[in-house]
Amino acid sequence: MTRRPYRDLVLFARGGGWGADRETDGHAPVAVIRGTDFAAVRSGRTESVPRRWEKRTLIEPRRVRPGDVLLEISGGSAARGQSTGRALFIGPDVLPAFEHPVIPASFCRLVRFDTTVVDARYAYYGLRDMYLSGRAGDYENQSTGIANFQFGRFLDAELLRVPPLADQRRIVAVLSALDDKIEINDRVVTAYEELLRAAFEALAVTGGGTVPVTELVEFNPRTPRPDRDGAPYVDMAALPTHVAGIRSWSRRPPRGGSRFRNGDTLLARITPCLENGKTGYVDFLDDDETATGSTEFIVLRARPGVPPQFPYFLARDVRFRDHAVRKMAGSSGRQRVNAADAADFRITVPDPRRLAAFGARAGAAFTHMAALRTETRALETLRDTLLPELMSGRQILPAPAPADTSDGTDEAGSSVYE
What we know:
alpha+beta; four-stranded antiparallel beta sheet; 9 helices
């Protein structure tokens, strides 16, 4: 089977831009996708993608089209073992979500493939296999503390197995079916969150009077000690920025830090994690199990009679977050808010019946969201197991069965009785 360098398959490659942060003569508005936006865009969330102003003459050469791939070529995170080389496939439903032309950020590269030779999404899966296998790190070098992906070296050295297009498309059909279901799950979770945030905001409108938030929510509540032999541990990197579910954790002997249990909310208190929205709802523990986490978490817990999801949506509320950010103190780049200052906040007293209805609705939604996350983890495991097998050719998909002509038609669809 033919293995070809990516240089033979790439029709066009162009670096991205960053433009200006305000309207400027000769510039036009664009959406600029960064490597940090890949996961959100893949899940249908585009609100965090920066809107910038780029020179009009530079927009069209960089403009992203359906079927393009964006490749992260600078950045990464050595501390988290994350190399450059992440990729995003631009499917047909991505660009309509933006109100402006889309370009890659300056730390990314737009890659367009020769589709007479290779299916663009098949080439993307080759890049994903390269990243997940760790081969992407082979093309990195370090410059002034930033990891850089050596694109020219990659083009010549990274080989892709290129079977006939029909075989490529069968592989794409299998992998993309898994990806599409994962994306659907993510979009359902996002829709739940948006609806429940609106319902939470309505509680304030229908309530009466204000009270200290501590009458409804405990901040850093007392929690039993975790198991000495090992307990679930959540680090800052595991906290999501847009949704509730915490998708990854480890297990280790407790060594201090925050303590929490199911139904608690974890709020990042340090810059820039607080500003970026790092917040998570704990629902993955066994009954009565205590977990530990970063010392940079504030733990929020609902008081008796308050739905456990209430503190989570409080932590997502713009007014509360703005209050917490204003209370941050410390040296530049290491500012943080302490729990007492974050708790110095007044909240509208919700109508009890509406609060109970919100709790019932949120409880059912969070149960479904947890089930979707479990399914998504299983789908991701299956996809990432199949990916190297299919891309290497170790696993061969069977050819499609011949068309069934028992209905009285030939393979072209014409009646054999005419």
